[in-house]
Design goal:
Layout (H helix, E strand, L loop, with lengths): L10 E2 L2 E2 L1 E3 L2 E3 L6 E5 L6 E6 L3 H18 L4 H17 L1 H12 L3 H26 L3 E4 L10 E9 L2 E5 L7 H12 L3 E4 L6 H14 L6 E3 L4 H9 L6 E5 L3 H8 L5 E4 L4 E5 L5 H13 L9 E7 H16 L18 H16 L3 E2 L5 E2 L2 E2 L2 E4 L16 E7 L2 H10 L2 E2 L1 E5 L3 H10 L4 E4 L12 E2 L1 E2 L2 E2 L1 E2 L1 H7 L1 E9 L9
Parallel strand pairs: 9-10, 9-12, 10-11, 12-13, 14-15, 14-22, 15-20, 19-20, 22-23
Antiparallel strand pairs: 1-2, 3-4, 5-6, 7-8, 8-28, 13-26, 16-19, 17-18, 21-25, 24-27
Helix pairs in contact: 2-4, 2-6, 3-4, 3-6, 4-5, 4-14, 5-14, 9-10
The structure holds NADPH dihydro-nicotinamide-adenine-dinucleotide phosphate (NDP) and 3-phosphoglyceric acid.
The site of 3-phosphoglyceric acid (3PG) has 8 residues, from loops.
């Protein structure tokens, strides 16, 4: 049960505490933020609305805790991360329960997210020991005009205080994907979880607390991003921001000072279907890729670009599969569950109505009950329709018919987004050429887009992001290079 057993100390009455200086605390603000259950549309949890003074204190503590953490041996940092990973997986049930109630994640997917997060933390611990345990040694005479009178030793050192801001759809996994790399690299970590998903995140933070990390090294501030977010992201004590979410990230990037940014933002992942595709494989991936977690994934298939000659057959196959999806509450493990908020459902409905007004073919009747929207495939979508370009973040998928692969590539590249894309064909040469041409961070060949497995590089181009995630790239991005040059009185070639 959430907030019980070893988690009893993280709640006070019916309001969850925030985490600072190794303790669970009530905010001096006296205010709280309600967390609305997307299924019932009632308040399910409450979290503290932290004050700016509390943010200042947390960042000061993070700065001093980081100094001693940077002097903690790599193997000790890794040991604590492995402990946190084990505790996280041990408590998968109560944390998954929070995901079901806060973000309407289907029960099985909720457990998967927590287990995947534990695996990410452990893999990161091992990878960190490897890549941070080695540096580079350069000699001066490898450059013209120099004798071997200089030895250059380079290593990766921490940035300082890393601010992690994950989105609602993976409030545990996309939090640890920032926390673990930051900590193994010797940084301290301030987490601002999404409002919806905050309680799952607080339970995850408690697992790190139970693992025994030093006081003040890791903290978790709760409160609406729209209220406390700007103060956090523009705070002079923050040395790096790792953000995952929507257009908010673009605004943050424009305001941030001279610090490293890791941005994973929205997507409009295109799925190009060629005439020689395996249409059963393509249909299965379109349904899984476009409708898992009700389409609320940045890597969801968000537009299908299918060759006219096979379009009717493909659409029929997708329709048949969509008809088998279960629709209802996440507690029953339904495939399609309510979207995150009423405003999100209204936005999705706006895109659907625009498509209707402009003449799209509705493969199913449009149906909505509260935040619950039934899966909808829109055929014969044209570029003048909003849904051809905008990100619904819901269970609605547009199909555009194309007459050449170039047409599909052009549509994909005309988007402001550039996260992932996919192409279905039996011709590997064609697949590689199309992958080369698509301006996206990743192209999947004969499978739907996906961030996982979590050690793969994951990056967005254009408005989809800055930098690259994936465990190794995240660790490297949360360090900076330090060189130490030893100057010798006379050339020395004894080093061979
Ligand atoms: N590329 C990727 O990997 C992913 C991209 N996304 C994209 O994010 C969107 C949906 O996720 P969603 O969570 O709604 O995204 P948002 O951008 O609304 O929120 C993301 C995070 O930013 C916080 N936030 C909001 N305002 C500010 C601010 N001014 N300063 C600092 N932080 C702030 C939010 O907190 P709060 O909840 O309190 O508002 C949340 O923790 C979609 O566009 C989706 O494509 C989502 C997941 C992954
Ligand atoms: O933000 C998202 O939606 C996730 O990055 C998607 O992760 P997944 O492709 O592994 O579900």
């Amino acid at each position: 049960m959430a907030g019980s057993g070893c988690f009893a100390e993280i709640i006070d009455g019916d309001v969850y505490k925030f985490y600072a200086d190794g303790e669970w605390k009530k905010s001096d603000s006296g205010k709280f933020v309600p967390i609305i259950n997307p299924t019932t549309r009632n308040t399910h949890f409450k979290v503290q609305a932290c004050s700016q003074e509390e943010v200042n204190k947390i960042i000061e503590t993070a700065k001093s805790a980081q100094k001693s953490w940077a002097k903690t041996p790599l193997w000790k940092r890794a040991e604590l991360l492995h402990k946190a990973a084990a505790i996280l997986k041990e408590h998968r049930a109560p944390i998954a329960e929070c995901l079901v109630k806060e973000i309407a994640k289907p029960a099985k997917d909720a457990v998967t997210e927590v287990v995947r997060s534990g695996d990410l933390v452990s893999y990161c611990a091992e990878e960190g020991v490897r890549i941070l345990g080695e540096g580079k040694f350069l000699v001066s005479d490898s450059f013209p005009g120099n004798e071997r009178t200089k030895y250059c030793l380079t290593s990766k050192i921490p940035l300082g205080v890393v601010l992690a801001i994950p989105p609602f759809n993976y409030p545990v996994n996309l939090a640890v994907s920032k926390i673990a790399p930051a900590l193994i690299a010797g940084n301290s970590l301030v987490l601002k979880p999404p409002t919806q998903g905050a309680v799952a995140a607080l339970h995850m933070v408690h697992c790190f607390h139970l693992a025994g990390f030093p006081k003040g090294l890791m903290s978790c501030i709760t409160g609406k991003g729209s209220e406390i977010g700007d103060f956090l992201t523009m705070h002079p004590g923050v040395n790096c921001i790792s953000f995952t979410g929507g257009d908010t990230g673009i605004a943050i990037s424009k305001r941030a000072s001279m610090i490293p940014l890791q941005m994973e933002l929205g997507g409009k992942d295109a799925c190009i279907i060629l005439e020689d595709s395996d249409l059963d494989l393509a249909a299965a991936n379109i349904v899984k890729g476009g409708f898992s977690y009700s389409g609320q994934r940045c890597t969801a298939v968000k537009v299908v670009l299918v060759m006219e000659s096979v379009a009717d057959t493909l659409v029929e196959k997708v329709k048949t599969k969509l008809a088998k999806l279960t629709v209802g509450p996440p507690e029953d493990d339904c495939d399609i569950t309510p979207v995150i908020t009423e405003s999100s459902a209204n936005f999705i409905e706006g895109l659907v109505m625009d498509a209707k007004q402009k003449g799209a073919t509705f493969c199913q009747e449009y149906k909505r009950e509260g935040n619950l929207i039934w899966p909808l495939l829109l055929d014969h979508v044209r570029p003048d329709m909003r849904i051809a370009w905008e990100e619904p973040f819901g269970p609605v998928l547009p199909v555009l018919r194309i007459n050449s692969a170039e047409e599909g590539i052009n549509h994909c590249n005309a988007s402001n987004f550039g996260l992932q894309g996919c192409v279905f064909t039996r011709d590997i040469n064609k697949a590689i050429l199309i992958s080369d041409a698509m301006e996206t961070g990743t192209v999947q060949i004969n499978s739907a887009p996906a961030r996982g497995p979590d050690h793969f590089p994951f990056q967005g181009l254009k408005d989809s992001g800055i930098g690259s995630q994936g465990i190794t790239n995240s660790i490297n991005m949360m360090t900076k290079i330090k060189s130490t040059v030893i100057n010798l009185p006379a050339p020395s070639y004894t080093m061979g």
